[in-house]
Structures are given as structure tokens and as C-alpha cells.
Amino acid sequence: MTNTSQSASEQEIKLYVKAPKVYPRETEGRFSRLRVLAAWVLLGLFYVLPWINLDGQQIVLFDLPARKFHVFGLVFWPQDFVMLALLLAIAAISLFFFTALAGRLWCGYACPQTVWTEVFLWMERFAEGSRNKRMRLDKQRWNAEKIRKKALKQFLYITFAAWTGITFVGFFTPIRELVPALFTLQAGGWEWFWSIFYGFATYGNAGYLREQVCKYMCPYARFQSAMFDDDTLVISYDEQRGEPRGKRKRDADKEELGLGDCIDCYGCVQVCPTGIDIRDGLQIECIACAACIDVCDEVMDKMGYPRGLIRYSTENAMAGRKSRILRPRIFIYLAVLLLLVTLFGVMLTGREMIDLDVLRDRTALYRMAGDEIENPFALKVTNRTEQPLRLEVQASGIEGIRVVSPRQGFEVPPDEVSNRPLTLAVPQGALGPGMHEVEILLSNVGSGEVVNRSETRFYIPPEGR
């Protein structure tokens, strides 16, 4: 009984081992430069865009209370949900296209988790030093040096994460008003909550969870296999060229030693942000950052071997089979993507800048007013332009129909929605009982130009009612 319990305990210890901390080594190379460039561009857009104003309006602002989104001079309303659906479809097809073409490019170069982790790693290196110095620092006992370095790292972490949280909220609340309000303790509860929440999420995800997010929390790694095939470009280790691996001196003859090109330096493992060994083959933990390619090329240069022991390649190419990078599914994804982008562009350029909705008043279907029959409606006008508009309503479709209210023109401020009651009147006996088609025209008071029109129905009751 004792042996059985001990065996179960030992098995539990083996199954639930704490994941070791990953200490990625800094790399240099063409792919590293691409990652740094992508990080600068994406972070620049994130932190700078909220501070840019265009004609007095924040260039990117998702104004949820007013239910309108300002994006580079354009205003989107809830009525534009079709365009939002198109944008989501474009993002999804883009992900399918790039994944089928070259694997997890999104993860390696543009994913927020990757970009912010790179920044936090830079701060960690700045405060604690290189990979070996960080490993030694974590193992040594607490002393003045360790406290100073850890305190500096935490200061950088918390400051950067807090500013990230504030910037995130600045996309929903005008940042030029938000920052002074936060620093003078006059901001609202929701601004405080989301600033702290997103700042804490950045601090935890990029500062500590890091590769755990990619391994266990991100669903993309789980369904990426559905978009991969044997002709997808992925980070690959050339096993035929590299094996058998083994250490040797720089001037040693690998042929005499019976070794491949891999010198078993573990450089590819040391630079991997998720801590995997790419020589074990393609793994779901690989985020395609290509750091292993850069460090391996550097080692190959030092050894005088050709580059490309680790490279972007396909399963078919690595197996010596014919490989087709440009294949039917790539063209299908590209065609669908171009179609959706074109459709979005057409909808964006052709959308009405002044929306008109005419709805029936639910309180009364009709009412008698002397020798006329009146129908009440609700008029909703949305001004998407940046200028105030003075508009008037006209009606046609029934002989003698007239607009009772609003009698005079009314003004709709820029980027606003105006709700007004609309009453139409028709002389008794003009038409038989039932529903009759009516066209509502909305025109500019100054120019007389019809800016929009809508159709509705006018109800005439049976005689005697």
C-alpha cells in the first residue's frame, strides 16, 4: 500500500513540473531588424495616433456614449455595422492568406503579445543585463545589487504598463481630456477601471506570462494546422544537412568527424522566446519570429558553412519533394480578400453622408383633423458631414399630400442625429381606404438639392370609422 501511494506521488510530481523560466538571448540579423521595425511602427501608431487631431477632432476615437467612431476623418455609426462585418471578414481572410502562405507571420511580427513582450524584454535587458547575467541574478541571494536592478526593472515595467493602459482608454475617451483628468483625480470610475485593468493586463502578459500566453491561452496555435499544408512556408531545420550534430573546433573537418553542419551550440534554443528546440520539428509553440534563423546563420558564418541550416521552407521541400508555394488555395484566399477590400471601398465611397429613416408612430395609426387625415411618423436624420446642415422635408406620391410638421427647415449639427416628429396630411376622399405608398424627400434649404429620400406608407381608414 505504501509503495502504491509513493508511486502515485512520484508520478504526480513528474506530470506537474513547474515550467522553467525562459531567458531569450538577444539576436542580430535581418529578421530581427524586421521585428524591431514592425514593433516601432505598431507601437508608434498605438501611442501617437490618439494625440493627433484633425480639424479639432481626435483622428481615431471610438466614442461609445455618442455611438460613433471617428477614424481618419471618417465617422462611422451603428448603422454601418455591415461595413464593420466586412472589416472583420477582411481581417479573417487576411489571417488565412498569410498563414497558408508563410505560417504564423502575425504571431512573429505583429501580434500585440509579441510586440509588447519585445519591449518588456528590452527593459529587462536594460535593467539586468544579458541572458547570462539575468540567469545569475535570479539565482543569487538578495543583496543591494539585486534589489537595485529588480527595482529598476519593476519601475520600468509599471510605468510603461500604466501609460499603455492610459493610451488604450485614450482611444475611447479623448486623450487630451483624459490625461489631465487622471492626474488631477477628476476622471470617472470607468476611465480609472479600464486604465488600471489594461495596464495590469499588459504588465502581467508581457512582463511575466509571455510565452505561456502563446502556448496555452492563444487559440490560434490550436487551429493553425487547419490552414497549414505541406507547401506552407514554416521555420524548418534541415535535418539531412545538420545531422548527426556535434561540437567541433572551427577549423575541424566535419567529414572526417562524421558530423553534419549543426554544431549543437543550442543557440537556436537560447534565442527562442517560447523556449522550444526547432530541431525537434515544427511545433505549435513556434511563433515564427525567425530568431533561430538569425542566430544559426551567424554561427554558420563563423564556421564557414553555408547559411540556411534553419530557414523558411516547406515540408515538401525539406523532404525532397516538389514544392509549390503559389498554389490554388493561395489564389482563392487572395481573390476573396481583394473582392472584400473592393466591396468595402465601394461601400465606403458610396455611402450616404446624410441618413434618413422614417418610422411609423406607434401611439396612433391615424387621426382626423377637420377635412384631412393625418398620419404621425418619427423622423430620424443623421448628419455624417463635418458641417451643420439646414434641411426641410417634402412629401409626394398622393395628390394633395402636405407636411404638417416640421413646417420650417430644421438644423442638424455635424456628426449628430436629429429625431423629430413628422406629420403628413391628406384630404379626405383623395384615395380609397388602405395603405398607400408615399415618398419622403429631404432637401437642403439653401440649395434645394435633395440629399436623401425614403419611402413609407400612408394609412387611410375606411369611411365611417
Describe the fold and architecture.
The protein is built from 17 helices and 16 strands. α2 crosses α5, α5 (112-128) crosses α9 and α7 (144-169) packs across α9. Helix content is 45%, strand content 20%. A hairpin with a 5-residue loop joins β15 (434-444) and β16 (450-460). It starts with a helix and ends in a 5-residue tail after the last strand. The model has no long low-confidence stretch (mean pLDDT 91). The chain is of the alpha+beta class and 465 residues long.
* Average pLDDT number: 91
Q: Please give the share of residues in helix.
A: 40-55%
The radius of gyration computed from the alpha-carbon positions, rounded to a whole number of angstroms, is: 33 Å
Question: What proportion strand?
Answer: 15-25%
**Sheet with most strands:** 5 strands, antiparallel
Supply the number of helical segments.
17
What is the CA–CA distance across the termini? Answer: 93 Å
Count of all domains: 2
- What structural category characterises the helix and strand content? alpha+beta
- Tell me how many strands there are: 16
| Low-confidence residue ranges | none
Which shape, going by the Cα principal axes? elongated
